[in-house]
């Protein structure tokens, strides 16, 4: 009976994640264009025809419509169902670690914001200040919901990565964007200094790997969005950070 209830819960969280992921697609598209995310029906980005409700079912509608707009037949970007699907998977991963709790709600909210930051930074090479400010709300809640991270560790976390990034851009102006620095300052308070360093390490490995690949393909531009890799590192640290750090320390018998 307990197994059945858990299965139902995981399915529910996955479906909820799909629905929220559909809304995140709206935010990702509209926010950079300064279109209200609270008003107006979803519409095709090509012909601007309103999307009917039964054509707006997360993931399913993409395959039902064979990846094309029902009105103009222009292709629908694969990123839309992928964002929805990944949001559902993220909800399951957080549930597996934190259970169905207030911690899950806060961690999922953080993940949803980070998904928006990731996609918008890929598209525009900027991180909207509004999203960073919004991220501060769950970051403050983390102080109460994750008391194992002390206040001192959080204060150090604010500066442990963001300050070196700020100093670096004084000498290399294009090294990082201002949004990256603000993001890591908020993440530092949210994660504490240890998990902030872990998040940055993950971002450097992933971002560096992508940069090397693009250079090898001779398609690398002078600038590359680093925010998405920071977001991946932050989310990995939120879900699996303590596990990864514990495993790393055990290698040295600590």
From TrEMBL:
Q: Which GO cellular component term is one of those annotated? A: plasma membrane
Locations listed in the record: Cell inner membrane; Cell membrane
EC number per UniProt = 2.1.1.-, 3.4.23.43
**UniProt entry tagged with the keyword Secreted:** no
| Domain of life the protein comes from | Bacteria
Q: Which GO terms describe its biological process?
A: methylation; signal peptide processing
Q: What are the residue boundaries of the Prepilin peptidase A24 N-terminal domain, all occurrences included?
A: 15-95
- Reaction equations catalysed: Typically cleaves a -Gly-|-Phe- bond to release an N-terminal, basic peptide of 5-8 residues from type IV prepilin, and then N-methylates the new N-terminal amino group, the methyl donor being S-adenosyl-L-methionine
Q: What transmembrane ranges does the database entry give?
A: 6-31, 89-120, 126-146, 151-173, 193-216, 228-249
All residue ranges annotated as the Prepilin type IV endopeptidase peptidase domain in the record: 110-211
Q: Keyword Calcium, does the record have it?
A: no
What is the membrane topology noted in the UniProt record heading this document? Multi-pass membrane protein
Give the UniProt keywords, A-Z.
Answer: Cell inner membrane, Cell membrane, Hydrolase, Membrane, Methyltransferase, Multifunctional enzyme, Protease, Transferase, Transmembrane, Transmembrane helix
Entry-linked Pfam families: A24_N_bact, Peptidase_A24
Molecular function (Gene Ontology), one example: methyltransferase activity
Any coiled-coil regions, as ranges? none
Please state which protein family the record places this protein in: Belongs to the peptidase A24 family.
Q: What does this protein do?
A: Plays an essential role in type IV pili and type II pseudopili formation by proteolytically removing the leader sequence from substrate proteins and subsequently monomethylating the alpha-amino group of the newly exposed N-terminal phenylalanine.
Q: What is this protein called?
A: Prepilin leader peptidase/N-methyltransferase
Q: Which organism is it from?
A: Acetobacterium woodii (strain ATCC 29683 / DSM 1030 / JCM 2381 / KCTC 1655 / WB1)
Q: What is the lineage of its organism?
A: Bacteria, Bacillati, Bacillota, Clostridia, Eubacteriales
């Amino acid at each position: 009976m307990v197994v059945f209830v858990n299965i139902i819960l995981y399915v529910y969280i996955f479906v909820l994640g799909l629905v929220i992921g559909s809304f995140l697609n709206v935010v990702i598209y509209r926010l950079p264009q300064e279109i209200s995310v609270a008003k107006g029906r979803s519409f095709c980005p090509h012909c601007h025809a309103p999307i009917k409700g039964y054509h707006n079912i997360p993931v399913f509608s993409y395959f039902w419509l064979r990846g094309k707009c029902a009105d103009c037949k222009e292709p629908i970007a694969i990123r839309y169902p992928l964002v929805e699907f990944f949001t559902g998977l993220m909800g399951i991963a957080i549930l597996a670690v934190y259970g169905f709790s207030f911690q899950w709600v806060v961690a999922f909210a953080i993940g949803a914001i980070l998904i928006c930051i990731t996609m918008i930074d890929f598209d525009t090479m900027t991180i909207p200040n509004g999203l960073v400010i919004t991220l501060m709300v769950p970051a403050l809640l983390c102080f109460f919901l994750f008391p194992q991270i002390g206040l001192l560790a959080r204060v150090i976390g604010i500066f442990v990565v963001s300050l070196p990034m700020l100093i670096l851009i004084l000498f290399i102006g294009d090294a990082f964007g201002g949004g990256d620095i603000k993001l890591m300052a908020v993440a530092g308070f949210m994660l504490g200094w240890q998990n902030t360093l872990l998040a940055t390490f993950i971002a450097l490995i992933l971002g560096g790997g992508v940069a090397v690949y693009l250079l090898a393909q001779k398609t690398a531009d002078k600038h590359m969005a680093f925010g998405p890799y920071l977001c991946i590192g932050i989310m990995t640290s939120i879900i699996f950070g303590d596990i990864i750090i514990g495993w790393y320390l055990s290698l040295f018998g600590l």
